[in-house]
């Protein structure tokens, strides 16, 4: 089972997130020029947007996983019943074929 924290950080490893990380790093690394300090407001804004984007994506995927798990759990018993019914019908069709073969052989004296 995968850790939820690792899955959350996995959402920071896509194209949009990597671009946002690059912009945040450039906002700090590249000074404004003329001896001005780095642009902290842009850095904090980009990091906040990155965290918000990853959080929304994580919550949506987590809800989808939970819904899929609940759906599969609900269908598991129905699937077992349908497999059993299919198996039973297969046996009936084979037995009907065998009975038909025996009846032809007995009554019609047909030898294959």
Automatic annotation (TrEMBL):
The keyword Transmembrane helix applies. It comes from the Eukaryota. This is P-type H(+)-exporting transporter. SUPFAM superfamilies: Calcium ATPase, transmembrane domain M. The chain crosses the membrane at residues 12-31, 84-108. Keywords: Magnesium, Membrane, Transmembrane, Transmembrane helix.
